[in-house]
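step 4 of 6: structure.
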Amino acid sequence: MKNNIIKIVMIGAIASTAIVQSGCKKDFTNPNAATDEQVFSSAKGLTGVVVGLQRVYTLGRGSTLYNLVTINGLTTNELIVVNTGNTAEVQLAAGGTAVDGNHTMLTTFWTTCNKVVFDADKVIANAKTLADKNYASGLIAYASIFKALSIGNMAQFWSRTPDGTGTNVNFIDRVDGFKRAITIIDEALAAITANPISASFIANVPAGIDIINTLNALKARYSLYAGLYPQALATANLVDLAKKSTFNFDPVALNPFFEVATSTNNVVQPKDSTLGLLVPLQPSLTDGRVPFYTSINASIAPRYRINGFGNAAATAFPVYLPGEMTLIKAECYARATVPDLVNGNLELNKVVAKTNDPFGVNANQPPVAAATQADLLDQIYKHRCIELFMSGQKLEDMRRFGRPNAERKRNLMPFPLRERDNNPNTPADPPF
Amino acid sequence: MNQLQRLWLGKCKAISLVFLLQLLVIAASAQIKISGKVTGADGKGIASASVQIKSTTAGTVTDADGMYTLNANLKPGNYVIEFSGVGFKSFSQTVKVTSDATYTVNAQLGEDVMRMDEVVVTGVSAGTTRKQLGSYISTVKSDQLTKGATGNVLAALQGKTAGAQIIQNSGDPGGGISVRLRGISSVNSSSEPLYIVDGVIVNNATTRVTNTSGNYDGGGFVGTIGQNRMADINPADIDRIEVLNGAAAAAIYGSRANAGVVQIFTKRGSTGAPVVSFSTSVQVNQLRKSVPVNQSPTKFGGPTDGAGAQTQDILTPALTNKTNVTRYDYNDYIFRTGIGTDNNVSVAGGKDKTKYYTSASYFKNEGIIKNTDFRRFSFRMNLDQALSDKVSFNIGLNFINSLSNEKPDGNSFFSPMNSINIIGNFHDLFTRDIFGNIKAIGERGRVNPVSVIEDIKQRQETNRIIASTGLKIKPFKGLTLDYTMGIDQYGQKGTTFIPPFAYNVSDGFFGGGPALDPTRNGYASAGNYNFFQINNEINATYQTKVTNDISSTSQVGYSVQYEKSGYTLLQSRGLSPFAQTATAGSTIIPGVDQRGELSVSGYYFQQNFNYKSLLYVTGAIRVDGSSVFGENQRNQKYLKASGSYIVSEHEFWKNMSLSKVWNFAKLRVAYGESGNLTGIGAYDRFNTYSSNSFVSRTALTSSSTLANTNVKPERQNELEFGIDLGFFNSRLNIQTNIYNKKVDDLLINRFIAPTTGFSSLLDNFGSLENKGFEIVVNGKPIQNKNFNWSVTGIYNHNRNKAVKIGQALTLLATNAGAPVAIIEGQPIGVFYGAFFAVDPSGNLVKNTVGYPQGERGIQTGPTTFTVQRDPATGLPITTFPLIRKVIGDPNPDYTASLVNEFTYRKASMRIQLDAVQGVEVFNADWRTRQGVGNGKEAEKEQTGVYPRGYINSFYATVEQWRIDDGSFVKLREISLSYAFGNFKKIKDITLSVSGRNLISWDNYKGYDPEVNAGGQSTILRGIDFGAVPIPKTYSVGLSAKF
């Protein structure tokens, strides 16, 4: 018996030992993707990431851009839902309590905004270590554009914005969010001033974005939203209104509005030729911007269709419109400590009578003459709504211009439950 | 270590010496021949019964008529010959070897209903009898697999093994089938068991090579749809299938056994004259049940087609005018009667030291959807060759070519089912324009079902080789060494051709819009998936007697597996009208090139002691490592222990008078651990940036999932108790299992705060519990010369629950719109959403207009809330949001099967009922039919039974409306066969008629409650969204032998 047990144990032990010796290969490299370390240690990798920021920001139904425009458009009556099967869109169109923390579009929007901030931070930090400072300033500036836009976008929809990225982040007031965006832009502008962007950087990112004009335009926009009128006016004056700055698309990477809505006629379309405005602010029947932004289909419902910057597969989408800059100037004059109605009217009428817009957004209307500050602000609001149709700015405008809650479906958005469930610092939801 | 190696080398020399000595001994003995016939209780020969001379290496198996011949070198003396066969009790007979050269030993084996003496091969070379097992392992024999009118081995297994829920997820002829053993065992990865065919790990992946573009399903979460590759295995080649439900049984398989193991053994040859077996059958497939369609003579709003068309009137409550319409039933158009045929020829035989089994098979089956089919060619060769008394080897080769003509799958709106589901039934599909082209359907750019059926061509083809080779050495008494190498290699190719549409089809469905944009209209793709896997196993088994009463079996083994896969996709749109290839389009859509490789290796040691055939104790340890996990988590250790105590073997029991009635009692307990070393993708532990072309530049995009390099593999531990009882000389048998199967370090791709920069984190969170029991009862109420009646009942009860996953709610957005959730303390995959307000008697609360109301209030937790109702009207207060709860569960309360078999003289009949009860289905299609106006609820609104706007008032908001009762009892299989016996040289002529899924007793509002749009997905279950219903099948077959 003893012998047998010894025999069993011996055979077992010996065989096991022999087996352990002959392991097999267990470390395979991933040919499909690059690792964090590889990406952030080279100019090439960092360039890929900034192009990736633009891709996340602009491509497809999950993009920040699509959700910004659609959420804003449905909330402010610019858009209607074509098919009730689009649950998230229907909830926005219903507004109020129908929009809650589970809302899929708000969750996607919140997620892409934070994703862009997260990756932009890594690019900005790692670009500073590159030897080629002129290339680095391009990386910093390009990443800063998307970071500033993402923070600014969140501040337009939510009462408070995240104070950076990470675990259990704190939140800051939305106005401070706009100011944060301005700081980011200022740092980017400073980097460019110190080391002008090299031509090789420009060649490595998609054509379309005019970096310096865009930085100034966004600074002007967020200065206005933060109530920093003199700064908004000064910065808007720095923007070259003859230049275009666009998010470009091609037959492979499609314009998201065309891809999701225009081509399918199954998701959203413009409300109608009023562009969602009520009397007395509705656009005039001769306003050139109505046919610019909407087209008419006489045989297939709905009658009014997306045109403008969502009309075709490869239509470029403006990062900002020259008209926005002009209207910022008008508003800054109107809201100055001592309202300057003369210059306010003057700037406003540049938009009202415009016939030479680089994008073709030409109202071509007789000038207006607003007699009071209130009148002027009403006119500025009206023309912002028309000029900046489907650009995602209207909800912010409705609040700033004191439009009644009844005109919109929600005032501010509830925080996504994905954030609330996982971050104890998530602020309370607004009642409306 | 060096010392051990020297010892090992020393031992090798010693073994060689022993080997030599053995050869000398052989030379001294005399060559004798033992032959005879092994029969059953009915006197018929038993094929493939094992005949073994105890304490020697001599053995063989019987031929098709039960005859055997055994040549052995034996010294004179007494020898015990053991006879055993699948389904029979083993039997021993002593033979005295003298100076004679030939002996005749016949044996009659009693039927073993509980199959306690059946040999089961639990991951080791030698196998053990079921009597010795501490865990439950079920065996399904070939004759049970081939009566059910199906060409798919997994479908054939439905209802035949305890603890398994086998679901055919699609009624397509090559449709996917999922197998869940004791519930799901993972959340992140597949929950399909490990499949082993003749020792070769066989890939059962579901890889889409068609339906690959995001346009098919919006790029949303769709699950795991399509064919799974077990479709390649020909059921006619199978001798038997063993099913190991959980870690308690499968621990020896270690790292890949978390979801259980299914072992398939194919037929092998036996010594004797060649036997040619032939079988042929013809199947007829039909739609079992259609759905009623709207018969309202009017619709709301304007015309149905052409200028000013207004469809989806139900969802546009502003429309109140009415238009007269003609109603159609498009089901009549897309469905047809499909014909199929299954033909098998095999030749088996052997002489002296060579045995062979070869087969050829042609299977073709047409789907019930027009222009869909599946066909399979299969060739198999199994060869067993003895090189000497001590050394033998075998080779198995299986070549398969599977081809299917498909249609886009259910998750797209241009699948056959959804193309008729998303349109009102008031369009004349066949009107043509002056050029003879079919026309647009309404104004919404939907694809005309005629285009789907006639024009869209989708096809996939697989060429596959499964090869195995094995070497078995019995160097000396008690020791068996065997080595198996297996290769599974296949290439799967899919092509799609959607010709440019001649009418307005949405860009999202590969149309060119109203303007027929030539750069967008039409689509073609070519997808290729290549898979290669090799596994090597080496095992040693040593059997010996420790004392007279205690015998011991020791086993050691080592295995190494390596797999490599590659997937490429080419696609383009904007096709010219003639070219069908993926490069023919004017707009190239980004392609895919995805590669992976992984390896798993491990070793084990198992020790079993047997005391007087009364008590069996087994312990084992296995260590495994996988390349998928990081260095620190790579190697995992799994333990196993089991005991089996056969109380009825005691003398006192045998002497009891009770033993005449109660003749068998066995208690068993088993504990086992296993892991999921392929639970994440090959490189999923790394945080990576994927590279894409974007506006002619390179974009690097970070994943939405945060990875943890130190992530651990899931571990399962399962404890199982069982009692096996036999009564009335085993005419009535009861087997019960109670188990607690727990998966720890559960891998969940869980949501995290987006402010971290990621949407989810793939990491180990909490555990997954499956607790349940299984009861198997079989009996033979009537057993006499002419008439036999046997009954088998299986009852499975399983409760699945997520435990301590650390987050209250993970709500998944799915393509079908199903709100699938993972919630702490709830079963995985429940449906979670808003629900209707009801009064105390359960009736819907309606407002003054007559609209039902969603319940509103304050949500205090994922499953808790405070309802807010207006005290005056009893209506939910609309200023509060809708509240949510678990509204449905796709995990059944229980599943059960009942099989009755009758034999009267030469006729036999088999009836199998399968039940799945207490299960909910998310019936997305049913709701869609009401929304677009082709369903019966829409008819009620159009005819004024409901107030106008009724359906729209809750359509998008109250998910509960889509919850349907998925419970059913199906007449799964029924077969009638008659054995004509022999006619001249033709033997065993049998004619059979069978039916499959002929009747379903259910309250389901759709076609079939059994299908699942999520395919073989672990999480998405019970979703009805465009899935083709499972047909009812009739089959007539003839089989014979020569």
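step 5 of 6: annotate
 - Chain A touches chain B through 101 residues (CB under 8 Å).
 - Strands of chain A lie at 33-35, 79-81, 160-162, 171-173, 246-247, 268-270, 294-296, 304-306, 317-318.
step 6 of 6: archive
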